[in-house]
Amino acid sequence: MADEEIDYNIVFPDAGTSERHWQGTKEPVVILLGWAGCKDKHLSKYSSIYNEQGCVTVRYTAPLKTVFISESFGYKELSSTALKLLEILYDYEVENSPIFFHIFSNGGFMLYRYIIELLHNDKQFSSLCVIGAVVDSAPGSGNIRGALRALRATLGPKISPVLRYVLLALFAVTVFLLRIILYPLTKYIHKNHYDAVQERPPAWPHVFLYSRADQVIRHGDIEVFVETLKHKGVPMDSFDFLSSPHVGHFREFPEQYSLKCRDFLVACMKDSEGTETKKRQRVQNQ
Question: What is the pTM of this model?
Answer without folding.
Answer: 0.84
